[in-house]
TrEMBL record:
It comes from Chthoniobacter flavus Ellin428. This is Xylose isomerase. The gene is xylA. GO terms for cellular component: cytoplasm. One of its GO terms (molecular function) is xylose isomerase activity. Residues 87-286 form the Xylose isomerase-like TIM barrel domain.
Length: 437
């Protein structure tokens, strides 16, 4: 093993009483919960973009964390230098998966042809490291928002040539994802939306986005890529109105354009809150439609109105996430992907470990708490009892399609007044959850 982090050994589980900042307190990969190991339940993934490419810059200031392995390097040379560092980090962390964007592992060159050549050079290094470590690719994706050609969108650009370049970029990224054994591929449209409707033909742009995704589905079949496709809801980042604003908007789009059989959702907490929802809401919307595929594990600062991508440390949040994941059958191709970055003030390489250890422990606690709540049964029973009137009699008849407005009017006239619903008992249920947390 290399020595980019010479003072840090492989992170081990030491239990809740450990004071070692480089040890797991709750994440025990081999511990069995509801018949599966924690490792298999959580399927942790480290992202390449924030972990390797994040340097602490923001809209008001430049980089603050120039890593020692980056000094004096740029372009392809810098991209090559990052690969062994990343895999040493992920290996010491014990993460079974990683995820990347094409232009984060290998940046834009002058031409698309040269960009593809740079990408191929890095892919060879990624493949070597995957084989050496056993770490797998959770999913790949294309970065279709930073380059000037995508300033007004990629698949939804008013310029057909931008659409063509985006298609060529995704084609290459799909080929690479297949070559690296990726278990999925994610679409997230950083600029697929509009700033003003005065210059926008929304219907045409949505038609183009659907056509783009159908092309991707067709090409995946052509090359034999069996991985799961995801679309990631993301509002206000950075376009004022994005077409993939939340889970419901994405599902409506996928249904309208006959794409729902081909794509599931990759949900992110920070995007949920920017859309005015909770992550619990977004997961329920996706899960109820059979479209809950994967999650980006982060959180936002509720006092700030942008995507801060902080590591998740709130056990209430991770409990809610894991209750949703367990309710809908757990991950298959998806996982808990840490689309999160250390703070601008956290400038040491060791801070990357502290951040990921905290997030992994928080999700491990959430998993154990969620399993305990499910085993206890009181929460599920309360919800079941609250809807008991639909399990027989009139409710069952309505659900079976046996009633009409006329028959229900007859029932209401004869009844005189509807029976009262039982108390929702929100406070009781919040106390119940607190028993476990």
């Amino acid at each position: 093993m290399s020595t980019y982090f010479p003072n840090i050994s492989k992170i081990a589980y030491e239990g809740a009483k450990s004071k070692n900042p480089f040890a797991f307190k709750h994440y025990n990969p081999g511990e069995v919960v509801e018949g599966k190991t924690m490792k298999d339940h959580l399927r942790f993934s480290v992202v390449y973009w924030h972990t390797m490419c994040g340097q602490g810059a923001d809209m008001f200031g430049g980089p603050t964390a120039i890593r020692p392995w980056e000094a004096g390097k740029s372009g392809l040379e810098l991209a090559k230098a990052r690969v062994p560092v990343f895999f040493e980090f992920a290996e010491k962390l014990g993460a079974p998966y990683y995820a990347f964007h094409d232009r984060d592992v290998a940046p834009h060159a002058v031409t698309l042809k040269e960009s593809n050549q740079w990408f191929d050079a890095i892919v060879a290094l990624l493949k070597e490291q995957q084989q050496r470590t056993g770490i797998k690719l959770l999913w790949g994706t294309s970065q279709l928002f930073a380059h000037a050609r995508y300033a007004q969108g990629a698949a939804t650009s008013p310029n057909a040539e931008a659409f063509a370049f985006a298609a060529a970029q995704v084609k290459k990224a799909l080929e690479v994802t297949k070559e690296l054994g990726g278990e999925g591929y994610t679409f997230w449209g950083g600029r697929e939306g509009y700033s003003t409707l005065w210059n926008t033909n929304m219907k045409r742009e949505l038609d183009h986005l659907a056509k783009f995704l159908h092309m991707a589905v067709d090409y995946a079949k052509q090359i034999g890529f069996k991985g799961q496709f995801y679309i990631e809801p993301k509002p206000k980042e950075p376009t004022k109105h994005q077409y993939d604003a939340d889970a419901a908007a994405c599902l409506n789009f996928l249904r309208e354009y006959d794409l729902l059989p081909h794509l599931k959702l990759n949900l992110e907490t920070n995007h949920a809150t920017l859309a005015g929802h909770s992550m619990q809401h977004e997961m329920e919307v996706a899960g109820a439609s059979g479209a809950l595929g994967s999650i980006d594990a982060n959180t936002g600062d509720l006092l700030l109105g942008w995507d801060t991508d902080q590591f998740p440390t709130d056990v209430y949040l991770t409990t809610q996430c894991m209750l949703g994941i367990l309710k809908y059958g757990g991950f298959t191709t998806g996982g808990v992907n840490f689309d999160a970055k250390v703070r601008r003030e956290s400038i040491d390489p060791e801070d990357l470990f502290h951040a990921h250890i905290g997030g992994m422990d928080a999700f491990a606690r959430g998993l154990k708490i969620a399993a305990a709540i499910r085993a206890d049964g009181r929460l599920d029973q309360f919800v079941k009892d609250r809807y008991a009137s639909w399990d027989n009699g009139l409710g069952a008849s309505i659900e079976a399609g046996k009633e009409s407005f006329a028959s229900l009017e007859k029932f209401a006239l004869e009844k005189g007044e509807a029976g009262g619903a039982a108390s929702g008992r929100q406070e009781f249920l919040e106390n119940l959850i607190n028993e476990f947390i």
